[in-house]
Structures are given as C-alpha cells and as structure tokens.
Design brief:
The protein is mostly helical. 58% of the residues lie in helices and 3% in strands. It has a two-stranded antiparallel sheet with strand order 1-2. Strand 1 (12-14) and strand 2 form a beta hairpin.
C-alpha cells in the first residue's frame, strides 16, 4: 500500500468527516496550520535541553491530532484547563514573566517562539473558518489560544534554565502583551 493514492492530483482532498473539498478550502488550511504547528513543536522539542518541557511538548503534539479532528465536534473544557494549569504553573516561577522577549537568545527558545507564531497563525485561520459560517468549537479556539501562551512560556523557561535574559527592554515602557 502506497501513501501516494493520487486522489489529490486534481487539487482536492478528503475531509475527516467525509466528502471531498478543494485543497484551498479554509478547513484544509486550518488542518494544515495545526499540522505545521505540530511539526515545528517537534523541532523545538528535538533541541530543547529541558526534559520537563520536552515531555510536555510531546504530549501536546499528540493532543494536536485530537484537536484537528475536533474542530467541529469539540474538545472538553478539561482539555483547555490542563493547558491553563501548565501556563499558571510556569508563570509562578520567579522571574519568568517580566517583559516581551527578544527571540533568538538561544536556539531552543527561538524554536518555541517560532512554534508560538505558527500557533497564532493557526488561531487566526480557525477564527476565519468560524467567521465564514463553519462550525468551530469554542474550546478548540480556547485551546489554541492557551497553547500559544504556553509555547511562549516554554521559551522563557528554557532561557531561564540557561541563565539567559531575553527581555526586549531594559527599563520598562508601555505594558505590551507578552504572548501576542
């Protein structure tokens, strides 16, 4: 059996829920953005020196397959709460949240920053999909929003472990969102 079925040669693909659509369909774009996110997270995990962050990343990568399949069926609030608890746990580490971070202070943290930006793009695609009239479960949107926060924090935790200060500004300034 080959993975090359040739059924997509004319620019269409099958949906998880059945039927075929254009590969340019917004739902396919959402699936693709989540797939890309999982791959970027895999790269970040592969170079991450923090075992706890690596294991959490691997668990989330596996969960992303369920998230993709759940775009319209829905996720449980407990799934979102699990990420929220991880966010809160890392935020409570002394010195972890101080300012917007300048990406690139370490290879691993930069990889998590790239994953965060891919996650935000996936979130924008999901919102566009919902705004187009398609059903997108609110918990899926909350999950992806929370995941981008967590990915930002993973980058900061990796930096903190390495003794790196990646704060963008020295003396404060306007209160910016740290995770965009």
């Amino acid at each position: 059996m080959s993975i090359s079925t040739k059924r997509g040669d004319k620019g269409e693909t099958a949906l998880v829920r059945g039927g075929r659509v254009s590969k340019a369909d917004l739902r396919i774009e959402a699936y693709g953005a989540l797939d890309e996110l999982g791959s970027v997270m895999g790269f970040a995990r592969s170079i991450c020196p923090n075992e706890r962050v690596r294991e959490a990343t691997k668990s989330i990568q596996k969960e992303l397959f369920h998230v993709s399949a759940s775009l319209e069926k829905g996720l449980t609030a407990e799934t979102v709460d699990r990420l929220t608890k991880q966010v809160e746990e890392i935020e409570n580490i002394e010195g972890i949240v101080g300012d917007w971070a300048l990406p690139g202070e370490s290879t691993a943290s930069a990889a998590y920053d790239i994953a965060r930006t891919v996650c935000r793009r996936a979130e924008r695609v999901l919102v566009r999909l919902r705004e187009s009239g398609e059903k997108v479960d609110q918990n899926v949107l909350a999950y992806v929003n929370r995941l981008s926060d967590l990915l930002w924090l993973f980058g900061r935790l990796v930096e903190k472990d390495a003794g790196i200060d990646s704060r963008l500004r020295e003396g404060g300034g306007p209160n910016w969102s740290r995770a965009w």
